[in-house]
Amino acid sequence: MAGKSKRAAKVDEHGVLLVAPPKTISNKEHLQRLNYLFHLSTFHTIVNDQDENNALARMYAKNLDLIQKKTKSSLAPGLKRTLCKACQRTLIPNRTVRLGVLNDSKQKTPVNRVLVLECTCGKTKRFPIGKNPSYQAHGEKASNLFFFQK
């Protein structure tokens, strides 16, 4: 161990870890395909006013889910929150999902507020927002972003 020297990690003035860009990205084609299917699903949900069932958009979202499972690729939390698990719709406010803030507690304190997303299929998602209004998922925090140096 005495002969081996470790390189010190490079950190900028803001405390952000600087890392070299990866030489290769595993499953790059799968990630590009998943991204494309998500964008297609969102586009067809927004554009098609005649199709109330969003059949084409739901098919793209279902393919996205199947490919994600077969390739064992993980989706970002923000992307997962925009898809309904029951009917495979892309959740777009005032088009496929209704938003509301509920407070079912007896005291009606702001700590107990819950954001409720109700899809047109009837499935609801509930996210607690009262305890920490500035909460962000681990992958969305700015402190966890890596800046690549050239």
TrEMBL record:
Q: What molecular function does GO assign, one term?
A: metal ion binding
* The entry's keywords: Metal-binding, tRNA processing, Zinc
GO CC aspect terms: nucleolar ribonuclease P complex
Instruction: From the UniProt record, give one GO term of the biological process aspect.
Output: tRNA processing
Question: Matching Pfam families, A to Z?
Answer: Rpr2
**Family designation:** Belongs to the eukaryotic/archaeal RNase P protein component 4 family.
Record-given protein name: KLTH0F13618p
